[in-house]
Amino acid sequence: MAKTIVSNVVIFLGNGFDLDLGLPTKYSNFASETNIEWLELTKNFEQLYSQLYKEETINASLLTQLIEVSRNDYWFDVEKEIYKYVLNHKRPTPELIGLVRNQYERFKYYFSNYLNRIISSTIINPQSLANVLFNRLVKSNICSTICTFNYTDCFDLCSCHKRDGLKYMPIHGSLKNNNIILGCRAPHNQIEYAFDFLSKSTEVPSNLLQISTNYTIANEVIVFGHSLNLMDSCYFSELFDANNNNSDKNLTIICKNTESERLIVENINEWSNFSETHIDCDVQFIHTDGWYKNEEQENKAFKDLCNRLKI
Question: CA–CA separation, 132 vs 237, rounded Å?
């Protein structure tokens, strides 16, 4: 790893962080036939469609594509499907715009209800790697910024108080504030203006500016449970940009297992020239599955991280 003295840490939290705590927040958890919110959502959609939009074909429904990926675990699959949808409907009618907007708002409504329900009914695992690392970082003075892509409140989940001076950035909004952001990020203004409510682009400028500044001053970056997918690539591109002189930075990516690692590398390859042989900053993968199994390699990787951070 890099031989610099760690003085500043930025951590990014993705859905894998909540999953590691014990919350069933995969897309397949929500889009399940045994989940009451999903059943209410699809029933609501069917009523809306039959009552108001009989003229539209079923293929014109956003719900159709979201149901098709309902067996998938990853939320970025949903974002990709929304992206495909808007690209395939360049000239939407007012009726179609109304249908999609209603579906989109109901989707967020029922998903928010689902999250609130599982948060209130799930016992968080205090011995989880996510909880252990988060509490250590927050209680230290070394972590300057927490950027979360989750809608949940990580401080509430981990029973940890936010200390003064710690920047907390909910990139995609907050369930607590009832302003979750769900959609896609399309390059070069590819989203039809009428569908701009499906775009996540509105929150990019200020967040990117702040994150860029934090990248500059941080020499330790931790990514916990984020897939580093194309839809969120703008937040991470600087880490993998050879022109940004990141050689003095340590990058730790915490994911579930080697298959998750493979998927992350594959995702990064969609938007960068990333490879293990020429990445411009030092990278360490830690697999939570191996850590829970007390595997020597994963234990050592986590201990090395904590020792380097002095937490």
Answer: 28
> Quick one: fold of 9-23+125-309?
Rossmann fold (3.40.50)
**Could you tell me which residue, 20 or 47, shows the higher pLDDT?**
20
d(CA 10, CA 216): 10
In 35-179, DSSP assigns E strands to 143-148, 167-170
Q: What is the pLDDT of residues 202-249, one digit of tens each?
A: 555 455 656 666 666 778 999 999 999 988 887 887 777 655 555 678
R_g of the chain, CA atoms, integer Å: 20
What pLDDT digit, counting tens, does each position of 9-42 carry? 999 999 999 999 999 999 999 999 899 999 998 8
Residue with tokens 């300057």: 144
Q: Which residues pair with 184 in a beta bridge?
A: 199
243 near 237, Cβ under 8 Å?
no
- Strand partners of residue 23: none
Residue carrying the six token digits 């990445």:
279
Q: Please state the domain extents for the chain.
A: 9-23+125-309, 27-121
**CB count in 10 Å sphere of residue 144:** 17
